[in-house]
Amino acid sequence: MDGTNLKYDLTRGGIADKLLLVALPIIGAQILMMSYNLADMFILGRVGSGAVASSGIAGMYMWLSEGFLLIGKMGAEIGVSQSLGRRDVEAAKKFSHGALCLALVIGVAYALVCGALAEPLISFFQVREAEVAEGASNYLFIVSFAIPATFIHASISGTFIGSGNSRVPLMLNGLGLALNVVLDIVFIFELGMGIEGAAAATAIAQIVACALSVYALLRKHDRPFERYEFMRLPKRETLARILRWSLPLCVMSVLFTFFTMFMSRFAARFGAWAIAVYRVGSHIESISWLIGEGVSTSVAAFVGQNYGAGRWDRIRGGVRMALVAWCAWGAAATVLIIIAGRTLFAFFLPEPALIEMGVSFLRRLAACEVFGCLEAVSMGTFRGFGRTMPPSVVSVTCNAFRVPMAYFLSSHFGVSGIWLAITISASARGLWVFLWMSLEMRRNLKIEEARTKKLW
User: Taking CA atoms, which of 151, 340, 429, 434 is between 20 and 30 Å from 356?
Assistant: First the structure.
């Protein structure tokens, strides 16, 4: 990898060592994110369930933004990893720069929509409590100012991860989240700004994290490239390749969030308290899926570099190792959620009337933890290949089925029917994408064996 840092070459050395080299910092970053989310829930829970509901409703549009954010992040991650696997540093730079340009343009456009249409967007949820709707509108308007910075930061993180260096994103995310927590405490409790203070803290922290990521890309000693040029226009073919990789993932994520917004709308029929339970329960369960996203990203980087280098033996070994380790974690998470779910939920939302509903939600979510682990590794493998369409098809299909199923079950079992629909669809999604990935691996292995025989 002439022109970049050889320490993060994932095509050589022990498979376990290289997977851990990438995975541990990403998992660390996801644990930091989970810790921040839980701290945020704890702080807002002391303000009241209305504040939790407001941030949850506005957060749907932040979650929706992550789908568009993936265009820059995944474009950089896949392009950089495969190019460096082929030892083509210039191509890696082109993909990184093209992804960054797309991230900037899309981030500005999304910010303008959220800022200008905050109230109409929040009205979609038809929240009955006026103060909850107003708080959500204010939250969305304030955080919209930091959306372009968030997109740029994600794209640069994708470049670092694609090069095999996930430690820098860990440090940058850690600094941003620490600043966010400190500002939350100052703005909410010291200055009495309430939900608006939480939004301001988030926006400032994201802008600072973006500035630090730009500095790391240009100046840090273990940056992916010795030289990086911002002031140039990316080529059309580079942008087209990035979009071919990332658009299926973008559509998958956007539709997933869109379907979840309908689920929140169903929950809102039972009152803002149901949205609060949904938000807190989801963040507690994130102990598994946030770390799963870290594992998925590390697998994608490992598979991407080795796919570029044609190292199928390492790909096969790395995927098997990740599956065994991560499914063991999923089983442990299932037990933890069942045993400690009541204590965890009461810690973040201590209102007695809501605790039983929260425990019911968590126990249903626990049933799909192992399936979520299968999904995480399988999606990472597909991303490493640059084959983003299969996991997107699986996700969109299962999540689309979730909406009518939730509507039907909630009409018979109340809000518990919504929790049950989430569990069934998530389990089906994980099993389906795992089976598809297994077939894809076998097909590619046969093609590689046939090619090798011809050479001999």
Answer: 429
Contact, 353 vs 311, CB < 8 A? Answer: no
Q: Which residue has the tokens 């899926």?
A: 289
Single-letter code of the amino acid located at 148: P
Residue 189 to residues 11, 135, 183, 295: CA-CA distances in angstroms?
50, 17, 10, 36
The span from the CA of 438 to the CA of 394, in Å, is 14
* Neighbouring C-alpha atoms within 13 Å toward the C-beta of 73: 22
Residue of 263, 301, 209 whose CA lies nearest to 402: 263
Structure tokens at 386: 């640059």
Interatomic CA distance for residues 80 and 86, integer angstroms? 10
pLDDT at 1 over 60: no
What the block records as the tokens of 390 is 């299969």
Six token digits for residue 410: 């909630």
What span, in angstroms and rounded, lies between the C-alpha atoms of 301 and 36?
Answer: 25
- Give the rounded distance of the alpha carbon of 387 from its chain centre: 18
> CA 269, 257, 412 angle in degrees (round to 5)?
35
Residues 50 and 190: their CA atoms lie apart, in Å, by: 20
CA distances from 396 to 248, 285, 380, 403, 432 (A): 10, 21, 17, 11, 12
Predicted confidence (pLDDT) per residue in 279-292, tens digit: 676 666 666 666 77
Structure pTM?
A: 0.73
Single-letter amino acid code for the residue at 389: M
Nearest Cα to Cα of residue 42 among 279, 380, 320, 369? 279
Q: How far apart are alpha carbons 63 and 68 in whole angstroms?
A: 10
